[in-house]
Amino acid sequence: MDKQIVNMLSDIQRNMKEFDHNMKNFDHKLKEFGNDLKEIKETVNRIETSQTEDVIAMLKVGNQRSETDFHYLNTRITDSDKRMFTLENRGERYSSFLYTTL
C-alpha cells in the first residue's frame, strides 16, 4: 500500500511539473500575444493618423483650387462688367448723338 501511495504521489508530482511547464508556456505565449496586440494597435494608430493627415492635405488642396477658381471667375466677371459698361456708354452716347443731329 505504501508503494502505491508513493507511486500515486510520484505521478501527481510529475503531472504537477508538467502542468507547471504548460502554464509557463501559456504565460509566455500570452505575453507574446500581448506584445503583438500592442504592435497592431500602434500600427492602426499610425494608419489613422496618416489618413487624417491625408484628408486634411486633400481638403487644403481642394480649398486652394476653389480659391483660385473663384479669383479667376471673379476677374473674368469684373472684366466683362467693365466691357459691358463701356459698350452701354458708347451706345448711349451714340444714341444721344443721333438724337441731337436729327
Radius of gyration: 44 Å
Indicate the overall shape: rod-shaped
Order of helices and strands: H
Distance between the termini: 147 Å
What count of helical segments does DSSP give? 1
Mean pLDDT: 90
Spans of at least 5 consecutive residues with low confidence: none
Largest sheet, strands/sense/barrel = none
Strand element count: 0
Proportion of helical residues: over 70%
Strand residue content: under 5%
Overview of the structural elements:
It is a single chain. By secondary structure, the protein is an all-alpha fold. 98% of the residues lie in helices and 0% in strands. The chain is built from 1 helix and no strands. The model has no long low-confidence stretch (mean pLDDT 90).
Compose a concise summary of this entry.
By secondary structure, this protein is mostly helical. It has one helix at residues 2-101.
